[in-house]
Amino acid sequence: MERLQKIIALSGYTSRRKAEELIKNGKVEVNGKIITDLGTKANFSDDIVVNGEAIKYEEKEYILLYKPRGIITTTNDEKGRKTVLDLVKTNKRLYPVGRLDYDTSGLLILTNDGELTNLLTHPKNQIDKVYTAKVSGVVNKSELAVICRGVIIDGVKTSKAKARIRKINKKLDYSIVELTIHEGKNHQVKKMFDIINHPVIKLKRDRVSFLDLNGLKSGEYRKLTIKEVKKLYNECK
Ligand code: URA
Predict the structure, then answer these.
(1) pLDDT digits (tens, 9 = 90+) for 152-199
(2) Which residues contact ligand 1 via a Cβ below 6 A?
(3) Which of 88, 146, 161, 224 fits 62 for a cystine, CB–CB 3.0-4.6 Å?
(4) What's residue 77's pLDDT?
(5) pLDDT confidence of residue 80
(6) Cβ distance 75 to 95 under 8 Å?
(7) pLDDT beneath 50, residues of the chain
(8) Range of the structural domain that residue 171 is part of
C-alpha cells in the first residue's frame, strides 16, 4: 500500500504536490469512492480515477536524446511533421521535459515521470541549461553582462545567467557564446540575444544539469541510469 498521491505521481499523471491538491478538491476516486483525505493509502491494482480519467501505473523510463534540427518537440503534431517521439523506440507514453525549437539541436530528456518533469522545469530549482549560440555580429562583454544580469521577457525578468565568449569571427561577422540559463521560457535564448541586437543564427543545448551529449550523435539517444535519475532528483532539492 502506498499513499494515494504517491501512486498518482508515479503514474506520471502529475506531481505529488498537484495530486494532493486534486485529492483535497475531491477530484480523485478509488474503487468508485471519492477520497479527500491525504493520508489515504491504496494499492497499485486499485481503480484510481483522477478528473474522470483512469490512471495507469507505468514503469518509468528516462531517455536522453540528442535532438537534431528540423524535428519538433511535441508528442503529436497536427500537421503530421516528424516529432522527437518518432526518434525513440518505446512502448511508454513519454513526454519531453521542456522544449527545444524546431531549428534548435541538442540535449532533450523524455520521460513518463511527471514528478521529475515538474522538478526539472520549475524555475525555483535553478537547473543549469547550457547552450552554444552562434549569433550575428561581434559581441562584447558589456553586452553579455546585460543578459547575464537578467532581462525582461514577456513581462518577467530572467534569472541570472552566465555567458562565455567561445569565438569571435570579425571577418564573417559572427560570435559563438556559451550561455547558461535556469528557466525555459519560450524561445528564451533567442529573445535574450535579440535584446542585445545579436540575433541567434544557430542554437544547440549541450547540457542540462550534469548531463551532456558525450557519446551520442545527432538523432541518437540512450537511457538514463538509475544513478543519474537519483542525481537529477537530488539536484532539485
Ligand atoms: N531558447 C531558445 O530560444 N530556443 C530553444 O530551443 C531553447 C532555448
Answers:
(1) 998 999 999 999 999 999 999 999 999 999 998 999 999 999 999 999
(2) 100-101, 104, 187-190, 203
(3) 224
(4) 80
(5) 84
(6) yes
(7) none
(8) 128-208
Set of cell numbers at residue 104: 534548435
**What is the domain count for the chain?**
3
Which residues are known catalytic residues? 101
Residues 202 and 92 in one domain: no
User: What is the reported pTM?
Assistant: 0.82
- Measuring from atom 2 of ligand 1, which residue has the nearest CA? 187
Up-side HSE of residue 50: CA atoms within 13 Å toward CB? 21
- CATH classification at residue 73: 3.30.70.580
**The pLDDT of residue 160:** 94
Distance 73 CA to ligand 1 centre (A): 11
- For the CA of 200, the closest atom of ligand 1 is 3
pLDDT of residue 191: 97
Q: Which of 101, 102, 107, 205 to mutate to test the pocket of ligand 1 (most atoms within 8 A of CB)?
A: 101
Q: What is the dihedral of CA 42, 44, 49, 50, to 10 degrees?
A: 80
Do 201 and 215 reside in the same domain of the chain? no
Nearest alpha carbon to residue 199 among 109, 107, 133, 124: 133
| 68, 182: one domain | no
